[in-house]
Each structure stands twice: as C-alpha cells, then as structure tokens.
C-alpha cells in the first residue's frame, strides 16, 4: 500500500486513531499512512488540537484510546493567590509542597510545612527531623491544621478552530473513510484537495470545512451527554464525500472531503463515550446536499454558546459525582460493617455529617481542623513508649 501523504510504500501501516486517542477515541485504522507521516502530523496538527481540549478531558475524566487517564493540569492560578494542579476528574490540590526551616538565636528550630496530604506532611517532617538530628521527643510547640478551601473560579483560555485544528478534524474524517471504504480510492486525484490540506495546509475551497451549527447532526445512537460522533457519508448524485464531527456532545463541525465521488451512497457513524470507552458503529440513512453543507455561516456566539452548554453539563456531572462519593464515604464511616442492624445512632451520625459537608460544599465554606501531628506517627510513638 502507498501512504496517502508521502506516497511511500508500506506493508503494515501505522495505527491511526479515527478520533484522536487523547480525546478518548478507540477505533483505529492501519490503511492510510506510514509511521513517519503519522508521527509528523501528530506533532504538527493533532497535539495542539488535543491540548486545547485537555481541560474538558480532565474534567470529565475521560479514558484515552490507549487506556490512560487524561493529563493533570499544572500551575493553574487561583483567585486566592496560589497555584494548584487539577488531577483527572477536576480534583484540585496544591501545585507543590513547601518547607521553611529556620534556626533562631536561642537554638530553636522553627519548621513550617505546607503539604498536599497528611502522608506527604509526615514524610517532609521526617526529613527535617533527620536533617537536624532530632526526633519526635524534640517537638515542643505545634500547630497543625487540615485545610479544605474552595479555590474559586478557575479561568482557562481555549482557542478552537482555524486551519491547524481543521486539518486535524479533516484527518479524523479521512481516517474513518479509510476504515469503511477501499483506501485505494484516496490515492486518486479526487481526494487530493483534502489530502493536501491535511498534509501541507493547502487551503480547501471556501467553506468546505468549518464549525457547523446550521446543519444538524443526523439522528443516531447517543451513549452519553459527552459522546463523540463521527459520520462519513457519500452522495453519488452530487459526487461528494462529506463528514460530520461532534465532540463532547456540543462541538460540531462538517466538511466536504471530495467532489468527484463515483461510488455508492453510504453513511456510517462511529460513536464513543470518552468517559467510559463504550463505542458503537452503525449505518444510517441521511440525505444532505452540497449546497446545505456549504451553508455553515458559523458565528462566534454560536461556538461560545456550545462551550457554555458543555461546561454547564460538566458542572452538573461533577456536582453529582461529589454528592454520590460523599454519601458513600459517610455510609462506610458510620454504617457499613458496624453492626448487623442500622441503629438510630448510625443514622443520626451519618445524616448530621453528610448535611454539614453538603452545606459547606454548596456554600463554598472553607474549613480548618486542628489536629495533633504526632498522631501521624502512632507506630513510632508506641516504640518510644
């Protein structure tokens, strides 16, 4: 087979994800390009597109096509003046721990530690005690707090669209075509406009590819509010091959990939839920004209509205998961495995703690709870005793 980009011959092509792996796509094809071109285009066009959507990937905690978690978002500024990291699932934590140690004139050593969790605080304190040749008995004055703070509104800058990102979108569509039709068709001159656009950035005819909030994605199966759907279709009457792409249930694009098609009329849809990796394919009936595909006329406000709808859905998902996790943790703490029957005392303790936690979360109340740092060293204290 020949690579559609460089023309080189290959026996077993490089695995290309139909929808980018970083966005949760699982389906792959090996019948389109060589490994060198795959790596080059991944670096040149795909990485930036995926990076712009990494905030969404993190917040819905998607599973990549390679069965990995999304990246942790680092060095995010907060309204309270410190930096945090967002672990997958929109879980904030301090960007880094800090230690400040000073020896005073009276010989006392004052140590201040900020840590992301108690285990890290213990490890850092152990290191400081070892550094100064001290042990637990030398600790005289302590003030330790477990702090839970709401970091406030986080601001992210997303830039979606333009030739670079549209090249990545066209490539996903062409990959899906290669998985459903004979890839030899892409080596003929009719697909060269799309191929040259993807490979070299040579512009497509005006309005061949863009955001599309004029033409509705055709009716098909949906798997979740955040699923991706990719359609590749052909229309022999108008000799066109076209694609529709819906990302995270809200970001819609369409493209014309060929205007010299002489094959059968087919419409295939690939659907994947990036949060669960459940996927499905189906063949559907769909009629659309070239004139309709050219009428995208997408405005900035339509794209902004799509992002607003998407982030509102993400907010509801995070709130729902927080409540469910809090209920489960409270039950495990006060009820599960405590006795064969659930007592009124268990119910009261669970309901009171759960109600307080929910009120604090809903009202964004910061909490500070003092504790004895020596309790982190129970085993060591027993040995010393």
Explain what you see.
The structure is a single chain. This protein is an alpha+beta fold and 385 residues long. It has 9 helices and 15 strands. A hairpin with a 3-residue loop joins β11 and β12. The longest helix is centred in the last third of the chain and has 35 residues.
Question: Briefly, what is this?
Answer:
This protein has 385 residues and is an alpha+beta fold. It is 35% helix and 20% strand.
Tags for this model:
alpha+beta, 20% strand, disordered C terminus, 385 residues, elongated
Topology overview:
Elements lengths: L15 E2 L10 E2 L5 H18 L1 H7 L12 E5 L5 E5 L3 E4 L3 E6 L5 E6 L3 H14 L13 E4 L13 H19 L11 H9 L8 E3 L16 E8 L4 E8 L3 E8 L8 E6 L6 E5 L6 H5 L5 H35 L9 H19 L4 E4 L7 H7 L1
Antiparallel strand pairs: 1-2, 3-4, 4-5, 6-7, 8-15, 9-12, 10-11, 10-13, 11-12, 13-14
Helix pairs in contact: 1-4, 4-5, 7-8
Biggest β-sheet, characterized? Answer: 6 strands, antiparallel
Low-pLDDT ranges: 381-385
How large, in whole angstroms, is the Cα Rg?
28 Å
Order of helices and strands: EEHHEEEEEHEHHEEEEEEHHHEH
């Amino acid at each position: 087979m020949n690579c559609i980009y460089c023309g080189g011959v290959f026996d077993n092509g490089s695995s290309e994800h139909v929808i980018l792996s970083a966005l949760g796509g699982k389906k792959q094809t090996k019948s389109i390009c060589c490994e060198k071109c795959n790596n080059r285009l991944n670096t040149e066009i795909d990485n930036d597109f995926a990076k712009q959507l990494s905030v969404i990937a993190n917040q819905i905690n998607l599973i990549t096509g390679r069965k990995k978690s999304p990246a942790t978002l680092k060095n995010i500024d907060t309204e309270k003046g410190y930096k945090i990291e967002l672990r997958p699932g929109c879980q904030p934590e301090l960007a880094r721990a800090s230690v400040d140690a000073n020896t005073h004139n009276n010989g006392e050593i004052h140590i201040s530690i900020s840590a992301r969790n108690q285990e890290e605080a213990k490890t850092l304190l152990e290191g400081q005690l070892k550094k100064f040749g001290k042990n637990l008995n030398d600790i005289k004055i302590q003030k330790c707090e477990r702090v839970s703070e709401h970091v406030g509104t986080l601001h992210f800058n997303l830039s979606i669209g333009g030739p670079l990102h549209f090249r990545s979108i066209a490539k996903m569509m062409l990959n899906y075509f290669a998985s459903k039709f004979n890839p030899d068709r892409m080596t003929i001159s009719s697909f060269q406009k799309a191929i040259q656009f993807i490979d070299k950035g040579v512009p497509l005819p005006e309005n061949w590819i863009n955001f599309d909030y004029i033409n509705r994605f055709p009716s098909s199966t949906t798997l979740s509010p955040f699923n991706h759907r990719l359609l590749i279709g052909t229309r022999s009457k108008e000799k066109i091959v076209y694609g529709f792409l819906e990302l995270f249930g809200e970001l819609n694009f369409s493209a014309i990939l060929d205007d010299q098609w002489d094959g059968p009329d087919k419409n295939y849809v690939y659907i994947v839920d990036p949060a669960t990796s459940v996927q499905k394919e189906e063949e559907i009936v769909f009629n659309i004209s070239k004139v309709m595909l050219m009428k995208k006329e997408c405005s900035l406000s339509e794209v902004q509205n799509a992002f607003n709808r998407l982030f509102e859905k993400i907010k509801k998902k995070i709130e729902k998961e927080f409540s469910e996790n809090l209920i489960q943790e409270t039950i495990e703490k006060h009820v599960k495995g405590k006795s064969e029957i659930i007592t009124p005392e268990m119910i009261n303790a669970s309901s009171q703690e759960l109600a307080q936690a929910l009120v604090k979360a809903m009202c964004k109340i910061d909490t500070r709870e003092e504790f004895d740092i020596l309790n982190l060293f129970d085993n060591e204290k027993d040995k010393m005793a």
